[in-house]
Amino acid sequence: MTSTVDTNRPTIPLVMLLGGLFLFSVQDVLISDLTKRYPVHEIVFVRSLVNIWPLILLSFAFDQGKNMQVTKFWYLFLRGALLSLSYTCYYLALAGLDFAQATALYFTAPLFITFLSWVTTRVPIGWRRLLGVVIGFIGVLFIVKPGAGDIPLLPAMMAVASAFFYSLSALMTNWLGRTESTTVQSITFVIMNLFFGAMFWAIFGDGWAVDHAPAGLEVLLKEWVWPTRNDVLIMVGIGLGSAIGFIMLTAAYRNLEPSFAAPFEYCLMGYNLLWGILLFRQYPDAMTLIGISIIVLSGLFVLYREGERRQSIVRRLFRPRRVR
Hints:
Blueprint lengths: L10 H24 L5 H24 L9 H24 L2 H8 L2 H13 L5 H18 L8 H24 L5 H23 L13 H4 L7 H26 L3 H4 L5 H14 L5 H32 L7
């Protein structure tokens, strides 16, 4: 599969990006409802059983499976484990927080990525981007309101942990992308979801740990329950929807400049804020709205500075040299 970036006609890729994010927001709503009846890892396990097949079929449909070569086996599964931890933490946060709160805390991921890339690569971060990262985490304090007791602390920590694990996986994705295809990375992630789901079923499937679990983790350790016919259909729909959403996001990013596309991912926060109001009557207070605004603006600023940094590097590399 060849990558063609078309910056002159971004309308269709942008619609696919927004459509993919919309599907993931619907998935968040459905999973949040299912966690009232089933443990998180059971839902993710069934979803993964469904969406692994479209990913495999997609690879063979486009290039007869030629992009299935694996060179960094253990690193691929480490990345998959980090992503699996990220999504598990996010679903735990959704079960204990309002939609807007959980999504806003998750969107600290760009700030973590900026900081961690500086820590791991020692590429100069610049005081402006560093200031943007610091301000973004101040926005987290507006949402969490430490000491006020307005929101449960453990789910809030799960949302931030989700962003942290996602950031680590994003750095690994960038590194592995030099040798491993997007399809391979996606399939190994789904395999890790299946592995963790089976492991949790084997250890906690009878629900023995619920009575000993800290408040907020019950949704992870609940007893496995055979789903009703309607819930099976919902879980299958979640699996198919997430596969379609992934395909739409992949297609969008293959045809858009990342610096142009990345800010639109904040639309997911808008979707979830809207779902929270319309479906669950979750009206964020003034402090939460201020915190969301700070996180979004600081994230956009960091993305903007990152785009400028890359352009300046390109200009220096390809600057015409004087002929002496």
